[in-house]
Structures are given as C-alpha cells and as structure tokens.
Amino acid sequence: MWQIGIYAIIVGLVTLLLEYPRSKRRKGKHDHERSYQHFATVVVKQGGLLTRNYFIRFVFYLVISVPCCFILQTVLGAVCFIITSIIYLTAGVRGEEWQPIIPQKAEQGPKVIAEPTRPPPRRPDAASLAGSRDNIASPQDSRV
C-alpha cells in the first residue's frame, strides 16, 4: 500500500507543475504572472494540446484520482482531484483553454522631469501674520 503513497506524491508534483502557471484571462487587463511562473510556463507551453485543452485535463485528473481512492490516507486528495476534474469539465464546455501570459515590455517614460509651471504653496511667515493682525479691525473697535 505504500506504493500508492509514493504515487500520490509524484502525482502531486506533476499537478504542481501543471497548475502553477496562471493562464491569461479572456477579458480584462489584470494578467499578472506568479513569482517564478516563467519556468513552469515554458514546460506547459511545450506540452501543446495535452496541457492546454481543459477536456484533456478533465480526463487526466479523473484518471489519476482513481488509485488514490483505495487507501484512507489519500482519499482526500482523490476527492480534490475529482472536484478539480469537474471544474475543468465545466470550463471545457464553456470553450476555455489555457493560454500563457506573455509579459509586455513596459514603455519608458521621459527621462527628464518637466519643471513645474506654478510655485509650490508656502506657509506664511510669522512676521507677516503679526503685521496682518494689526490691520484687521476687531469687532469691539467698530462699536466705539
């Protein structure tokens, strides 16, 4: 029975390699790679149709979950693989497929910062505040 445990560890590593690279979104601009995703993306991209098509992933996860159902220690992993295969089946029915995120080069901005057109705001000096207080008439002075 220990052979199934070794099988589960190897299948887990293969799953990590297959699932780590994030796919490009169909809509939106928020495609961000995970850290060190580029290395796994190259491997998955080389797999071609076998790694890109979600129907094939559905069958793959369903098949690899079967041996894990035979002993209690790996049943939870088998249930996770079955749920994953159902998710991939629904994604395949919707017509989705894995596409690599191709990083785009950032556009370089100007190297020289343009000088400001207005001066920055400044706090008034204490001397100018004291002088302005003398010029302001208080309400008591107006009654006289």
Shape: elongated
Total helical segments? 7
Percent strand equals under 5%
* Helix vs. strand class: mainly alpha
Q: What is Rg?
A: 32 Å
Please report the total strand number as a whole number.
Answer: 0
Mean pLDDT across all amino acids:
79
Distance between the termini: 106 Å
Biggest beta sheet attributes: none
Q: Which stretches of 5+ consecutive residues score pLDDT under 50?
A: none
Helices and strands, in order, run as: HHHHHHH
Estimate the helix proportion, in percent: 55-70%
Could you please describe the fold and organization of this structure?
By secondary structure, the chain is mostly helical. It has a domain at 2-24 and 33-93. Helix content is 56%, strand content 0%. α4 packs antiparallel against α5. The longest helix has 19 residues, at 75-93.
Task: Give the SSE map.
Elements (H helix, E strand, L loop, with lengths): L1 H18 L17 H10 L2 H4 L1 H15 L6 H19 L32 H10 L3 H5 L1
Helix pairs in contact: 4-5
Structural key phrases:
single chain; 7 helices; mainly alpha; elongated; 144 residues
